[in-house]
Specification:
This protein is mostly helical. Helix content is 70%, strand content 7%. It starts with 5 loop residues before the first helix and ends with a helix.
């Protein structure tokens, strides 16, 4: 058997990671566990601006093993809903209809038991998962909108200076 030194193994690891990136995936590690997730620009951008304990879940949501795992997706969405609650008024100031829709979905599907809601209780697992996935995308958009709102004054000042 061939003996590999640490430097050679590191080169092999870097090559594998490069190949994974070439096919549109990204390596994500937490607590020594590595997963490869779809290289979703919005998810990656948001994972960089949220608190560290939520960042991994933002990326984990896109992992192929979560397809069909409604319990885990619901847990992640619950954490996302909780993390944005304190920014609700700021988000409402940016887009009130969007904010209303997002928080209604959080309340109806994530925070409260709506077993008595005939419409929700008649939905199939795949229909519920589609709603969960839409909520995930909406949450990403909400976080990006909030981040941009923080830049708006700076950008306006820059444009004003440029235009004299």
């Amino acid at each position: 058997y061939a003996h590999f030194d640490v430097q050679t193994l590191h080169k092999v690891e870097m090559h594998i990671e490069s190949c994974i990136e070439d096919v549109g995936y990204k390596k994500v590690e937490r607590d020594g566990i590595i997963i490869f997730v779809e290289n979703d620009k919005a998810a990656i951008s948001v994972s960089e601006i949220v608190e560290p304990q939520l960042a991994y879940s933002v990326l984990e949501y896109n992992h192929y093993k979560l397809k069909g795992n409604l319990d885990r997706k619901k847990d992640i969405l619950k954490n996302m809903a909780d993390s944005i609650e304190h920014e609700r008024n700021a988000l409402k100031g940016i887009n009130s209809n969007f904010t209303s829709d997002l928080f209604q979905l959080f309340n109806k599907f994530i925070r409260h038991d709506n077993a008595d809601n005939n419409y929700i209780s008649s939905m199939s697992d795949s229909e519920i998962e589609e709603v969960y996935d839409d909520m995930y995308q909406m949450w990403l958009l909400a976080k990006l909108q909030l981040e941009q709102a923080g830049r708006n004054d700076k950008i306006r000042g820059l444009i004003k200076s440029i235009n004299g």
